[in-house]
Amino acid sequence: MFIKQGIKSENKFWKYIVGSLLIIVASFLGQAPLLVAILYDSFVNGKAYPSENDDVMRFFEPNLTLFLILISFVFTMFGIFFVVRYLHHQTLLSITTSRAKIDWKRVFFSFSIWALFTIISTLGFYLSNPADFVINFKPIPFAILGLIGTVLIPIQTSTEEYIFRGYLMQGFANLAKNKWFPLIMTSVIFGAMHLSNPEVTKMGNIILVYYIGTGLMLGIITLMDDGMELALGFHAANNLVSALLVTSDWSAFQTHSIFKDISQPSAGLDVIFPVVIIYPILLFIFSKKYNWTNWKEKLTGKIE
């Protein structure tokens, strides 16, 4: 069982607190290239030092900003590997899946189904509300975005999955010796992690329903499938395809995407709809394809 692979007598919960702090340190170290670049432009070229997060996002050309932000996740991934290997004496595979090796067919199936949905829904929004969008496509910047995104966005999304659906999922299982507590805790923390996103400022805290709901869905498919493969594919598709298709002045990533959303952001059915309609449909598709059974035990049962 995937969630039990981290439960060992020597894996006390305090180790997960120490490990989380070390991973945060690695993340801060990964932000050094962005900080150095900003300081250089400020002191050498006389550019005004950014005072707010929004200013940081617009300080450089979008592709350069995206690159510098995503680089930090490479450092964080190394931090996760170090903590898992040397603090917990586990392999990275043990916090990835219960299978003998990563099932890449699962990763690509999940990626494909969510990428297809994202493309169709985005085109649907564009065709039904063309006044809310402008064509933002520029061939060379878009090609550079495609290269940066294809290489680094899966690292970013995988890092988040390894932290929440892998490391912390097993960590909270060590503490609670059940499955529902890790599922709830990782979903809430995942949602809270997005509090600093500009979307929250524009739309209000109601959008946390979407973020926490997404974390809950990713946790469910991880527990039901005994591995993170489906979560890895979904998260990579969600961030990569979105970055390539649509940007806005209030989104977390400013990119040279195909479209730019110029509408006034508001939180309504578009926040609730994926959580209560789309995600259950996705769970149904996965459950039929991979023959999931015994939902209550896998999501809420005790861990012996």
TrEMBL record:
Enzyme class: hydrolase
EC code(s) of this entry: 3.4.-.-
Transmembrane region(s): 21-44, 64-87, 107-128, 140-159, 180-197, 203-223, 230-247, 267-286
Residue ranges of every copy of the CAAX prenyl protease 2/Lysostaphin resistance protein A-like domain listed in the record: 143-241
Alphabetized InterPro entries for the sequence: Rce1/LyrA-like_dom
Superkingdom: Bacteria
Entry annotated with the keyword Membrane: yes
A single GO molecular function term of this UniProt record: hydrolase activity
Keyword Membrane: yes
Keyword list, A-Z: Hydrolase, Membrane, Transmembrane, Transmembrane helix
UniProt name for this protein: CPBP family intramembrane glutamic endopeptidase
Organism: Flavobacterium zhoui
